[in-house]
Design brief:
The chain is mostly helical and about 425 residues long. It contains 16 helices and 3 strands. It is about 60% helix and about 5% strand. Helix 10 packs across helix 11 and helix 12 packs antiparallel against helix 13. The N terminus is likely disordered.
């Protein structure tokens, strides 16, 4: 007669015997698996936060020096023999600056040494003096005080980026230049205020004068064009597909392509913009108009997907109630469904614009990485954007642009965080629960 096998986890009546050894081992395995899963998740979060912290700390350490600037207070004598009151802009302000520097170092007899002392100031110092005299012609024949940014090597020296203790042949400034700079420090003519020029100046070949204003204005125009195209087109397409389009193979094909376009690398859209908007249509290169059109193509799939998701979240009872009072399909959608979906649509729009703000590859392909020293005056003027400006600075050999690059990234992150915070606020402020 065969032996009957008894399950050690069950009682004779078939109920589970939770106090058996097998049941206890099973519980320990389950609890152990749960604990390991929690540990894995917590470890992943710690690693992610740690990497993000290292990234932010590196950016702050490298970019903090760009938020302050070394400035030199200089007494300038405007020699009437070098400036014609009838044509001030043609005056020899370069010589005026050189003579004023020479008067501060009477011990320097060699003109080459005087020019070395002049190099403590930014190369555009004579333009700054000229602008002051043009704004106030009464300064001709007078001595006035002006604060001028120091050139990049001395700016780095003052901030401690250049190590004084290194051998002279390994420094950008020699001992003689350091002695000249230290003399100005002893006279109290060196200050290190906040560098507002990082925001208020446009790009420059000189790190001490370079700023982000032109890139910020260009990014504003880019987002304006992107919003004006992608917002109405994206909402209209989403409303049609979700509320009006028949469910057949053609609309299914469109939906599949929209989902696929959302995953296409951004550089492909840049190639499309280069081929169609610039080479075929003939729109100007480096223009915010072209950049905004390219970015709108990139954000449209995301906008459509987000809008459709927001429309789906509106309860069917809203539609049924509209139909119950005799409203047409169009009235139900426009007067009931769409207004209730606006919070989700706005959130998706802002997140899509934030994504467009951080894109670099499409803008590089349409030429928005050119050196543009001024602000764009319109949608068709040459311009840069924040990401491409950071790219330009990262490719520059001057030491001062290293800090500028990190500072530019921090400014860009600030804009992105602000836009995402606004999206979260609008979502919580406007959303409704049913």
């Amino acid at each position: 007669m065969a032996e009957t096998t008894v399950d050690s986890t069950r009682n004779a009546d078939g109920t589970v015997n939770w106090s058996s050894d097998a049941a206890k081992r099973s519980r320990r395995r389950r609890y152990g698996a749960d604990t390991r899963l929690k540990i894995y998740g917590l470890t992943a979060i710690i690693i992610a936060v740690g990497v993000l912290g290292i990234l932010l700390a590196t950016l702050i350490i490298d970019g903090r020096t760009a938020f302050v600037q070394t400035r030199v207070t200089v007494d300038i004598f405007v020699d009437p023999e070098l400036v014609d009151p009838e044509n001030i802009e043609r005056g020899n302000f370069r010589q005026i600056v050189l003579d004023s520097i020479a008067s501060k170092y009477p011990e320097l007899e060699d003109p080459a040494d005087v020019r070395t002392a002049r190099n403590i100031l930014t190369n555009n110092a004579h333009f700054m003096v000229r602008d002051e005299v043009v704004a106030n012609p009464s300064l001709i024949g007078q001595t006035f005080e002006i604060v001028i940014p120091a050139s990049d090597p001395f700016d780095q020296l003052n901030k401690g980026v250049i190590d004084r203790d290194l051998p002279e042949d390994r420094r950008r400034v020699n001992d003689f230049e350091i002695a000249l700079f230290d003399e100005l420090v002893e006279q109290g003519r060196i200050s290190t205020p906040l560098n507002w020029g990082l925001i208020t100046n446009s790009d420059s070949r000189f790190p001490e004068l370079a700023g982000l204003r032109g890139a910020i204005v260009g990014s504003f125009y880019l987002l304006l064009v992107t919003f004006l195209i992608s917002f109405p087109v994206g909402i209209a397409a989403a409303v049609y597909l979700e509320e009006f389009a028949p469910k057949n193979r053609w609309t299914g094909l469109i939906e599949v392509n929209i989902n696929n376009l959302a995953a296409v690398p951004s550089i492909v859209f840049g190639l499309l913009g280069l081929a169609v908007f610039i080479n075929f249509i003939g729109l100007p290169r480096s223009a915010p108009l072209v950049g905004g059109m390219v970015l709108s193509l990139m954000t449209l799939p995301t906008m459509i997907i987000v809008t459709r998701a927001a429309l789906k979240q509106v309860p069917p009872s809203i539609r049924e109630g509209g139909y119950g009072v005799g409203a047409s399909k169009h009235q139900v959608v426009m007067h009931h469904v769409l207004p209730l979906a606006i919070p989700g649509i706005l959130t998706g729009t802002i997140i899509g614009l934030a994504q467009a703000l951080g894109e670099t590859a499409p803008l590089l392909l349409i030429g928005m990485n050119a050196f543009v020293p001024g602000d764009p005056g319109g949608l068709t003027d040459a311009s840069t954007a924040l990401p491409t400006q950071i790219f330009i600075w990262a490719d520059s050999p001057e030491r001062g642009f290293v800090a500028k690059t990190s500072a530019g990234i921090l400014v860009l992150l600030g804009f992105l965080i602000t836009m995402n915070a606004v999206a979260i606020y609008l979502r919580r402020r406007l959303e409704r629960t049913w």
